[in-house]
Amino acid sequence: MTKLSHLDASGAAHMVDVGDKASTHRIAIAEAFVEMNPETLQLILDNDLPKGDVLGTARLAGIMAAKKTSDLIPLCHPLPITSVKVDIEPVSANRLRIETYVKVNGQTGVEMEALTAASVVALTVYDMAKVADKAMRIEGLRLLRKEGGKSGIYEAE
Asked: Residue ranges of the domains in the chain?
């Protein structure tokens, strides 16, 4: 059975001590999708919704979310993130694809930051477009790639 690093000897949750780990270059890439009515996607692309620029606002929300991950996920370390990139693009007439890229030179990875950013981007799209389509669906949140640290490279199939 694998020992979980976030549990102490008594089974209580604790923050892992990364103080003795080497600082290395680390990246993580995550994705999510927002599925909606084609008319809703067109309103987003035409910047024709009452709350304003959906994609620009969602991009900023994702960047902010990556930087605030340790405030949201209890056992995440605050990290000196060096880069956050958010790409949002339509991949069909009714679907947006979100990809987030987070980079750090640090003692622990940025997978949670990339995943948090992707989820907040999707939630922001929903919030800003729900006036037109309350049936939107957020789907497929996952880690695509991570590099750095003891476990090396992970790439989703």
From this structure: 24-155
